[in-house]
Design brief:
The chain has 212 residues and is of the alpha/beta class. It has 2 domains: 104 residues, no CATH class; 86 residues, Rossmann fold (3-Layer(aba) Sandwich). It has 7 helices and 8 strands, in the order E-H-E-H-E-E-H-E-H-E-E-E-H-H-H. Strands 1-8-7-6 form a 4-stranded mixed β-sheet, sandwiched between helices. It is globular, with a radius of gyration of 18 Å. The two termini are 29 Å apart.
């Protein structure tokens, strides 16, 4: 039996078609997205997210990169803000003032990179071996407890959860997740519908909107 908090979206049929029709078309109304990431060794994920966000309809995009990359980037290719670099090639804590200034310009922030490995987290761990129904239940309970919107890939399904509601969409191209394309598109839709993150992100994953 499917619990009432779980809604299943078919790839070609958005659960929330109103989001599609209400999506802003004027650049001035489509939001400003700030993308933060990169290190001395590369910025491919940032550049890909920038392009994906523009393709998804973001009004304006800007990226924050370590200043060690400044000589490697064509100033005409990306709208960049450069901040201090630490010894390991990433963004240093001394970058906080320019980061705050850049964030004040934006309507939404997207962090691209491996920044989520934190051992101090929720007591229940999500495992690849878990049944889909158990993951859905865990996301349901987590987002009732914490005011967060979570997107998780599990068993060829992309799950979106917030305020206890969960949606699932079949997904066959995990490389778009690892490259950051899914995150960029989800960020644009969530930015454009800040009062409806669940409906917006779920809609962003529909195949007929160019998500695959």
């Amino acid at each position: 039996m499917i619990p009432d908090y779980w809604q299943r979206q078919q790839p070609n049929t958005p659960l929330f078609p109103d989001i599609v029709w209400q999506k802003p078309e004027q650049q001035s109304l489509a939001g400003k997205l700030l993308i933060i990431g990169g290190n001395t060794h590369g910025f491919a994920a940032v550049a890909q997210a920038y392009q994906d966000a523009k393709n998804a309809g973001a009004g304006e995009c800007r990226v924050v990169l370590p200043d060690a990359l400044k000589k490697a980037i064509d100033p005409l290719a990306l709208d960049c803000v450069y901040v201090p670099t630490n010894a390991s090639g990433g963004i240093t804590k001394d970058a906080l003032p320019p980061l705050k200034a850049a964030a004040a310009w934006a309507d939404a922030l997207l962090f691209i990179g491996d920044a989520g490995r934190n051992s101090e987290n929720y007591p229940r761990t999500l495992l690849f071996s878990m049944q889909l129904t158990n993951v859905v239940e865990a996301l349901h309970k987590f987002t009732i407890t914490y005011p967060a919107t979570v997107v998780v890939f599990h068993q060829n399904q992309l799950l979106v959860a917030t305020h206890g509601k969960v949606s699932s969409t079949p997904w066959e191209n995990p490389m778009l997740i690892w490259r950051g394309s899914v995150a960029a598109k989800a960020a644009v839709y969530a930015m454009q519908f800040p009062a409806q993150p669940f409906q917006a992100i779920t809609t962003a994953l529909a195949k007929n909107l160019g998500a695959h």
